Every structure is written in structure tokens, then in C-alpha cells.
Amino acid sequence: MMRSERPAGGFSPDEPPPPEADLSDDEEPVGILMAAADTAPPPFRSTSTLSRINRSVSLQLLVGLLLTGVGLLARLPWLTLPAAVVTLALAVRQLLPPLWRQLTQRIDDVPTTRVLAVVGLVLAALAIPLSLGWWDPFLDIYRNANWEAIGALGEGVIGAVGQILVALVALAIAWRQVMVDQRLTGQQNRITQAQTIDSFIHGISEMIIDEEGLLEDWPLERMLAEGRLAAVLSSIDREGKARVLRFLSHARLLTPLQRDQRLGRAILDGRGNYEIDRFHGVPVIRLHRILRGVDLSGTDLRGIDFNGADLAGSDLSRCDLRDANLAGANLAGANLEGADLEGARFFFGRSHTASPAGQAAPDPTTGAGTGAVVENVNLSGVRRLNPQSHHYLAAWSGPRSRQTLPGGTRGVPSQLERRPGSPGAGGATAG
User: Are the C-beta atoms of residues 91 and 125 closer than 8 Å to each other?
Assistant: First the structure.
């Protein structure tokens, strides 16, 4: 089927622009893909330190441990007691139900959280009695040099402490064994995931290619391909999702192709490629809402043609989105913090007249109705954003997102606030 290499921007050099198109602002005037959903945008995803602490149990335990340690070292009972109580509550909450659930991955993985909880429990158990003076009678024995009491205390208490230390050593050994088992399990899971992805790629290729090596995707085959994609993406991690998306995009299975009006087959352009039709074309696979709210953070998404996919609420932080096509996609509430956006396309046409999909009928000349829905997108620290995309994001991302856009939004009015019925519009009530 499609054997030629896809250019970096995700668009074919053989794809002719409409004759009436205006090539200002270095934009390629091509039609839009699909309208964004009419639902309300997800809330803005803040990445401030306070928000991260509120979302991370490990950070809460770490703050509690630090405050308790500072209180003990500085001999501040007013700080030690509340910090130790809060740390104890957090530690008990994590340790009482050991099989409650696995909270998060990577930074907030269960082993890390439980280790911090054990340390917090031990430190709080020592800090609370010290703050309330419960250890004073034992300390007075040593101060008064009462050797008989010290000997009895050594036989009873210190012996018990030694047994506890032996038990802790045994616990550390068992913990090390658990970590080794988890590492082996993780390696096995990666091997299984690679086999799953290879089986998916092979199955899709067999399904849509005929005996002559040409694309042959009937409606039922396209629906089965979309169903298999949804099933595979739900069973692999974010790196696996990125691998599958790169395969589908660079094989042009996500790109809308011009179809024969009678048989519905993709049409060859006479130069070894299939004809692209972003106005009325039909891709082999539509992403629909498969990627809504998914975690793709830190993955390689270069040159992917998202073709108007629903990415609302998705985590695209630190992603490599160079030359990706996001025009017409629903990015409402998505997190793009630290993403590399060099050459990424958010709209077609002119940046000053472009608008999100669903605002108007798609016009490749002006860009009306061709842009991505970017309301409440977190743009903190995005890199290598070109001026045209910067202007579009400043105009259509909303007040919260405008505050996170590097370079500021001076001189670019917010189009969302100018719409009738939106906050800030003349005569409109605050929503």
C-alpha cells in the first residue's frame, strides 16, 4: 500500500492546495477534518507546587516528614506535634489497607509511597511522645544515673528494640525481594506489550491490504480496525500508545483519503501515493474519542496526524509534538506543559482569521472553523512555538491558558471573552 515516506510536517508534498487558497503566514490551506465536541471544556490543569502536593500522597508524606524532622531538631513542640499527627494520619492511611489499590505509577508508585509511610510512622511514633513529654521519666533515669533501673530497662526495652531491629532487617530483605520480583514482572510486561503491538500491526496490515498489495478497506474492515485499536490502546502504557500512533500516522491510516464515489476505494494520484482529501476524505481509522483523557506525557509524537481527534483532558506534557497536525483536534483541558511544538499545526489558513472547529463552516483560505479547540489548555513552558500558532493560542485558549503562554499575550485580544454570552462580553452575565 502506501510505501512513500511521510514528510516531517505530516502532509504529502503531492497534495495540491485549493486554487483559491492564500498562502500567507506560511500556512498550507487544506480543509478541516471533523468538528469538535459541543460539550463543556474540561477544567484547567494547574501544575503549581500546591496543586502537585494536593495530588501526590508521596509529596504530602515527604512534607510531613520534613516538618516533623525540623520540629524535632529545633525543639519546637508547637511544630512537631501537629506535623507528627498529620504525618501519622497519612502513614496509617497508606499502611492499614496494604492491598487497597495501586495509586500511581513512576513518581507515585506504591512501593515508594509505602516506604515513605513506614518512615513517617516510625518518626511520628517517636516525635509525638517526645513532644508530650512521655519519654521524660526514662530520660530522668539516665540523668540520675540509677544503674539498677538502667539495667532493668536495658534488659527489657533495649532487648525488645534489638528484636525489632532484627525484624526490620528481615523486612528489608523481603522488601528487596519484592522489588526484584516487580522488576522482573515489569520486564515481562514490556515483552508482552511489544508482542501485542506487533500482533496488532500485523493484523491491521493483513486486514486492509489485498493480494496485490493495494489498500482495500471496506466499511466493516474500518470499523473492526477502529475496534481493535481501542482494545489495544486500553491494554498498553503510554509509550506503547505512542508507538501505535506513530505507525498509524506514518502509514497514513489516519489521513483522510479521497475515495471513489461508487466503490469507496482510495484513489491513487498517479505518483505512487494515495490522493488526500481533507474536505470529504475518509481515513482508514478514525480516532474519535479513543484518546480522550489519556496519558501520553513524555512520549515521541513527532509528525502524527491526529486528524481532528478528541484529546480533551489528555496529558501531553513534555511530549515531542514537532510537525504534528493538531488542526481540528479537541484539546480542551489538555496539559501541554513543556511540550516541543516546533512546526506543530493548530489551524489552516491565516492566524488572525482562524477559529476553532465548530465555530464556523471550514474555510481553508481564512482558517475559519479549521483550528484546534484549545480552551483551558495548560501551555506552561511550551517550546519553539512559531508566531502564528502563538497568536492563535493567545486568541482562543481562554483567560487561564493565556496566563501560562510563554511570551505573553500582549496585543492579542481573547476571542473567547468577545463571544456573545461569554464572561467579559458586553451585556453578558458572568458564567
Answer: no
